[in-house]
Design brief:
Shape: elongated
Radius of gyration: 25 Å
Largest sheet: none
Order of helices and strands: HHHHH
Number of strands: 0
């Protein structure tokens, strides 16, 4: 994907789905709009840009028609050459099963105590 990109048919199909979704006005449009604006606004962006989805779709189609490697560039810049990293490590809890058994026994005992004779 980083070098060859995606099949144009797949991109067109997804773009078509997005365009159909943009054409539908949901009943909760105000809330959806507010929830879309807030992150952009908090990160210092232009909050009105969230309403330009149709323009973005037109630009995407124009770029793809002109053989601009849109997705290859995004993958390269945002994933492959992104210097930001998170190191995540996990270690097992050796007593996990015994803790689970104790907790389950306590829950069963609580339930039993609440049952009527």
């Amino acid at each position: 994907c980083a070098t060859e990109g995606f099949e144009r048919e797949r991109i067109d199909a997804i773009a078509h789905q997005i365009e159909l979704q943009l054409a539908i006005v949901p009943s909760n449009l105000g809330i959806k709009a507010a929830m879309s604006i807030i992150p952009k606004w908090c990160m210092g962006g232009n909050p009105v840009e969230v309403f330009y989805a149709s323009r973005w779709m037109e630009q995407l189609r124009a770029d793809l028609d002109n053989n601009v490697p849109v997705f290859q560039n995004l993958i390269r810049d945002e994933l492959l050459q992104n210097s930001h990293r998170v190191t995540f490590s996990m270690s097992p809890d050796n007593d996990y099963m015994s803790k689970e058994e104790i907790q389950e026994a306590q829950q069963l005992q609580k339930i039993e105590s609440q049952l009527s004779q």
